[in-house]
Write a structure and sequence with these properties.
The chain is α+β, with helices and mostly antiparallel strands. Helices cover 39% and strands 24% of the residues. It has 1 helix and 2 strands, in the order ββα. The chain has a two-stranded antiparallel sheet with strand order 1-2. The longest helix has 20 residues, at 17-36. The radius of gyration is 19 Å and the shape is elongated.
Length: 51
């Protein structure tokens, strides 16, 4: 297991880099899915121009 230690004053944090990578890939997949459906970040889907 890979990890990274972050030391801030008296606090020590361990980051799981594999978990962070999975999360980033999941977010990327979700963004690509929304773009394919016509979503724009923070806005509603594109209106259907075929009438």
């Amino acid at each position: 297991m890979s990890g990274k230690l972050i030391i801030e004053g008296n606090a020590v944090y361990e980051l799981d880099e594999e978990c962070m990578l999975r999360k980033r890939l999941d977010q990327t997949d979700e963004e690509e899915k929304r773009e394919a459906e016509g979503w724009v970040v923070g806005k509603y889907p594109k209106e259907d121009t075929k009438k």
